[in-house]
Amino acid sequence: MGEVFALSNIRIRFIRGEEVKYISHLDLMKSFDRAIRRAGIPVIYSQGFNPHPNMVFGLPLSVGVTSQAEYADFEVDDSILPDEFMKRINNSFPPGLKVIDAKERHGKANIMASIGAASYDILIAAADGICADIVADKIKGFLEEDRIYVEKESKKGKREIDIRPMIIRLEIKKQRDDEERLRAVDCSSKYTNSDRWLKEYIESLYRDDVLPPGFKRESIMHLKALLSAGSMNNLKPELLVEALAGYIGQELKVVKIHRTGLFIEEGGKLLEPLDGNVL
Amino acid sequence: MEYKINDEILQSVEKPARYIGNELNSVHKDLKNIKNRFAFCFPDTYEIGMSHLGMKILYHLLNEREDTYCERVFAPWTDMESKMRENNITLFALETHDPIKYFDFVGFTLQYEMSYTNILNMLDLAGIPLYSSERTKGDPFVCAGGPCAYNPEPLADFFDFFVLGEGEEVINEIIDVYNAWKEDDASREDFLNRIVSIQGVYVPSFYNVKYNEDGTIAGIHPQRKEYPEKIRKRIIKDVDRVFFPDSVIVPFTDIVHNRIMLELFRGCIRGCRFCQAGFVYRPVREKSPETLLQQAENLTCNTGYDEISLASLSTSDYTGLMPFTEKLIDTMEEKKVNLSLPSLRIDSFSLDLMEKAQKVRKSGLTFAPEAGTQRLRDVINKGVTEKDLLDSVTLAFNGGWSGVKLYFMLGLPTENLDDVAGIADLGNKVVNAYMSVPKEKRGKGLNVTISTSFFVPKPFTPFQWEAQDTMESYREKQKYLKSCIKSRHITYNWHDPELSFLEAIFARGDRRLGKLLETAWKKGCKFDSWGEHFRFQSWMEAMEECGVDPYFYANRKREYDEVLPWDHIDIGVSKKFFIRECEKAYRGEVTPNCRVSCSGCGAASFGGGICVE
């Protein structure tokens, strides 16, 4: 004789900020569970010994990685609309987590099953004397290779895989464009503009009261990559940098990885998960 | 220049979330409005420290004050410690990442003896002089409280003051005095002079200890007559009205006890003769069901936790447990919050309760008979009979449970080989109880686990004068027990005795052990309770170097008239009572619990709780 209600499904886009970048995927899910409880959001719970909320996350992030484009699907009772969901969960989140968009979803495939690609901004630090032009040149050659083999460690042990087909796009961002673009977007939010996010991050690395890192500010380069992602083919940015470093023959230190987008492949096109065509 | 840790370090260590702070309900304040800063230190890892209820209470209590900012500090794991030392980063507090050496107070909680080396390591890592005598103006006051503070003597040289008993009131009194003192710009000693008369405050440097030729203590005396002869612990008379946080910090990562803890009552009515907690927390004081239900409501709303646990020394002894838990389960079920029930005596009511409360698989139940024969259980005043235990397990087996864990101690006073064999015997009887339950009723795959630990005589117990069994004797008993256990359904686990031996030394140690602690720490001893870090050999070397005879502390039987290192501490329970209890123990006589009749232990002098009900 419980209340009669219909189910609905909400897809959200959220930020994983600097404050929460060191928590594991499992702990991130727990944070959502608790935020939902605090906010009193009518999420549907699974049956069984340990009921847990029916929620599905896009693609787990490695520990230490930030993101401005995480996605998750929630099964809720239809008394709550996406805007209300967003407002309530944001009020109960700890700093570093924030939902920036929410829409109702009618499609069949949940977010985890649909992801096909992910884009990243990667800050690397190269040895002295390696300038952005040299790396840009090397990337060109790197991408002209037919096959790029790397050793991948999995549960079954180490194996060689060809990552070339999984690199959809890779480029280095020039310093000068950076500044121009930043000036143009100065008023835009950090949450939608990764250049701004990373600029703030670099500034935080060299703050007076923080231990200076082992690399110079000038040696930091900014890569932008679009990589295959999801359950079929998944290329982690760490592995890409390792392969690139091997190709260049220079050590490249990963300073920071920041996810800028997740995409669903639909009819040969990559679409944002909140795009009307996939919802 | 003092630097804060950077991302490069965090990315290179195990579990970086231990060091970042920013958890939900952690407190952030504008330093401009703060008069004093308090570093609340737990001398173990984040996961252990964050599970401690006392820290949660005092953290939020201190932060209720507008003039005070309390932050948390844990022992960094060894990987982080090396990075910090490499980069000259001193120990910092979690909320601001500021170095704690600039704080006003650095307060440690003393939960177990084997965390003492971590205290020295943390002080050193903080850049704070180890010895209180070496601290000068500008250094924080280093203080401590918690159960091990009842015999604070091994730590006397390192601490400016100790706080004995429950801290909720006294900590505010101390800070009020501190604020006035700070304005007066007076000496460190002047501050200690101002707080020494507050009940519960013990300033060890104000007391002299004299020794006899045989190494025992001749006397402990205050240096001035204004200082109290005896330092009496503090209690909160009305636990219903005392501060309890409405919200607690919710860690991002998993910790040992990751759930809401509701404190049912303080103290324990039982008086098991080996148990220090059963005496030092007297008298028993309960919270009312109304208070508890309100606190449960607040905490679930503010944390989002999906589990709530009842904290006390013996849950079953809470008056009106049945109606209270029924209401609690009702309200929590709606919120899909599970109830977990530790320290429950197993009877039909509690089994029923567990079934209702915890929707978990019926895997394991835990019992602590502590001793293998009725004779020895009477000696230790463990009010459990064999029949109680077998009735309980039979009920449980009938209800579908199939796993039973049994905890025992080896080395209890008066123990003989029959008592040891009795443990195996009891294990067999539990197996037989299972076999006598019809197959269709009992769960599949019987598993009885017997675990033994090594008895450590503790101060403020009737066994405070006892010799700890030798390690050799303990090992023999353990081997003998192993040979007695024949059933394939019984698994036997035991602890190695070395750690308990050290614990026995420090539990009843005196001021002369300070040097030993420092020497062992300098040899690399830290995280002693973590098997992978425990270096028994280094400890033995340190004892050799410091001329400390471990057997004097651990394995020597004391006379009743010997001056004990903690004789100047007054927990309210009298020495006379302990002597009486010790004599009764040797006669195998039991003492009824506080609810049945008062045994005149002395705790009634506090005028609170069960003693005046």
Identify the notable features of this structure and list them briefly.
heterodimer, A: 279 residues, Alpha-Beta Plaits, 2 domains, 9-stranded mixed sheet, 11 strands, globular, B: 613 residues, alpha/beta, 6-stranded mixed sheet, 4-stranded parallel sheet, 19 strands, 14% strand
Helical residues, percent of chain A: 25-40%
Name the overall outline of chain B: globular
Low-pLDDT residue spans of chain A: none
Output mean pLDDT of chain B: 95
Number of helices of chain A: 7
Largest sheet of chain B: 6 strands, mixed
Number of strands of chain A: 11
- Please name the CATH architecture of the domain at 7-232 in chain B: 3-Layer(aba) Sandwich
**Secondary-structure element order of chain A, N to C:** EHEEHEHEHEEEHHEHEE
Q: Output the number of helix runs of chain B.
A: 20
Which stretches of chain B are poorly predicted, pLDDT < 50 over at least 5 residues? Answer: none
Give the strand order of the largest sheet of chain B, numbering strands 1, 2, ... along the chain: 2-1-3-4-5-6
Strand-pairing-aware structural class of chain B: alpha/beta
Principal-axis shape of chain A: globular
How many domains comprise the coordinates of chain A?
A: 2
Termini of chain A, distance in Å? 32 Å
